[in-house]
Amino acid sequence: DEPPEVVFHLAAQADVRVSVSRPLFDADVNIMGSLNVFEAARKVGARKVVVASSGGTIYGEPAPEALPIDESHPQKPVSPYGVAKKVVDDYLYAFRALHGLDFAALALANVYGPRQDPNGEAGVVAIFAGRLVGGHPCTVFGDGEQTRDFVYVDDVVDAFVRAADRGDGALCNIGTGVETSVNRLYAAMAAAAGVDAPAVHAPARVGELARSSLNPGLAGEVLGWTPTTSLEDGSAAVLDWFRTHQR
């Protein structure tokens, strides 16, 4: 009775490690599932789909001098999850050309914020927060010098809302352009939580990128978007949420 004008597609099999161990399952969920969404949107006459892509995986393992990566960087993913996200982005271009279904694809950095589940496939900020507040040791995989681009959930929501009416036909990086190592993140969050115990180190995980950061310049141009929340303020908000809600 009320066909949607814009469809926001954020559903996924979101664990890179699962994609490595179960690539057929990952493709079934992330490629075929996305095609189901696009076909449904087309059939009901939706104007546009706004899709969560993956800035941390579609560009593969970039050279350090290429960071922060912009959208012109070659897409050479090294995990089945990244391959699926790249394929989905390619389908968006095809659906636009064939059927006039517009799109915006947002290549997200490492999204974090309050209410993120620390027990599922969660980001490291939520995992650290849950364990620090609970008085449990935190695990750092590898040497901890791997970097990520942490972008706060409120800023990401702002980007999605803007993309409903802007950025037609564009793939936009949604990140801060700032690299933060896992070691530095842990040190800052432990200090904020009043914990002086060091992290426990474990072997590096298969398929994990060494470094990642995204240049958000295009999102500024076509969406009018820029990140506004610092990692210090955002991680403090996550710690506060866990202090209030964790039992």
Task: Give a written overview of the molecule.
The protein is α/β, with parallel strands linked by helices and 247 residues long. A 4-stranded parallel β-sheet has the order 1-2-3-8, sandwiched between helices. Strands 4-7 form a two-stranded parallel ribbon. Helix 3 links the parallel strand 2 and strand 3. The protein is globular, with a radius of gyration of 18 Å. 40% of the residues are buried. The mean pLDDT is 94.
Largest sheet entry: 4 strands, parallel
Give the CA-CA distance, first to last residue.
Answer: 43 Å
Report the order of strands and helices.
Answer: EHHEHEEHEEEHEEHEHH
Count of distinct strands? 10
Taking all Cα atoms into account, the compactness measure Rg is 18 Å
Strand residue percentage: 15-25%
Tally of separate helices: 8
Helix content: 40-55%
Backbone structural class: alpha/beta
Which blocks of ≥5 consecutive residues have pLDDT under 50?
none
The side-by-side strand order for the widest beta sheet comes to 1-2-3-8
What best-fitting shape do the alpha-carbon axes yield? globular
Average pLDDT, rounded to a whole number, is 94
